[in-house]
Amino acid sequence: MRILFIAGLMMMVIVGQSAAQGLLGKIAGRVAQLVSYKNENYGPDGYEFAYETDDGTKREEKGSFVNGIWTVIGKSIWRDEQGNEHAVEYQADDKGTKAEVMEGRLSAGALASLAG
After folding, report:
1. Where are the beta strands (DSSP E) in 1-116?
2. How many C-beta neighbours within 10 Å does residue 81 have?
3. What are the backbone dihedrals phi and psi of residue 57, each rounded to the nearest 5 degrees, phi first?
4. Dihedral sign of CA atoms 92, 96, 102, 107 in order
5. Domain spans of the chain, in order of start
6. Where does the signal peptide begin and end (predicted)?
7. Distance in Å from the first CA to the final CA of the chain
8. Distance of CA 4 to CAs 1, 15, 27, Å?
9. Tens digits of residue pLDDT in 98-116
10. CB-based contacts of 59: which residues, under 8 Å, 6+ apart?
11. CA–CA separation, 48 and 72 (whole Å)
12. How far, in Å, CA of 66 to CA of 72, rounded?
């Protein structure tokens, strides 16, 4: 009886490890690779930060003094699992953080091409 219990327990551990490895494999399969990266520190004059990955994810951010107020502006772009692009532009200053979701908007160039 004791041997059956130990054998059953070992089977549960093996099956659990296999399931965990499968899940980790799926997660690891979705890890994007870095295409470009920028991180410049200009001291009291501000900074620039940006990166892009091979799955279309991008982020750009700049921080500097604007009229004596520390201001950060940036944009993040990513694609969901269906391939739809999402974008958010943001600004942070002494009045707080403002973000604008840019989904479903067409650029001026895209609108011009549609107009003919």
Report:
1. 34-41, 47-53, 58-66, 69-79, 85-93, 96-101
2. 6
3. -75, 135
4. negative
5. 1-28, 34-103
6. 1-20
7. 81
8. 5, 16, 35
9. 999 986 554 555 545 555 5
10. 49, 50, 51, 74, 75, 76, 77
11. 10
12. 9
Please report, as a single letter, which amino acid is at residue 93.
D
* Residue pair 57/77 in contact by the 8 Å Cβ criterion: yes
77 is written with which tokens? Answer: 């772009």
pLDDT in tens, 69-106: 999 999 999 988 888 889 999 999 999 999 999 865 54
Would you say 101 and 87 are in contact if contact means Cβ atoms under 8 Å apart?
Answer: yes
The pair of three-digit structure tokens given for residue 84, joined into one six-digit string? 């739809």
Hey, is 107 helix, strand or coil? coil
How do residues 39-59 score in pLDDT, each as one tens digit?
Answer: 999 999 999 999 999 998 999
Query: For residue 46, what are its two tokens?
Result: 């501000």
Chain centre distance of CA 35: 13
| Predicted local confidence at residue 80, as pLDDT | 84
